[in-house]
Write a structure and sequence with these properties.
single chain, about 80 residues, mainly alpha, about 0% strand
Length: about 80
């Protein structure tokens, strides 16, 4: 249940896990309107790039279904 601790030469190291600070950190600073617009613009640029690459890449990945399969002359016995 209780872990046995090895002797530590410095007392403050042994008590470090029990230490709790009563100092609260300062509140986070809100992002300005320019920063928010920049984040939105960056996000939209990334999404547009992914969608554009998908739209441009899909024709290269698809196989044409309307063209008949080509046969070599060797398979026809020529």
């Amino acid at each position: 249940m209780f872990r046995r601790r090895e002797p530590v030469p410095f007392a403050f190291v042994a008590e470090a896990d029990r230490f709790r600070s009563n100092v609260t950190p300062p509140p986070r600073q809100r992002a300005s309107a320019g920063q928010m617009a920049g984040r939105w613009l960056l996000g939209l640029t990334i999404v547009a790039g992914l969608v554009g690459s998908l739209v441009l890449g899909m024709p290269a990945l698809s196989t044409p279904a309307s063209t008949p399969a080509q046969q070599s002359q060797a398979s026809q016995g020529h």
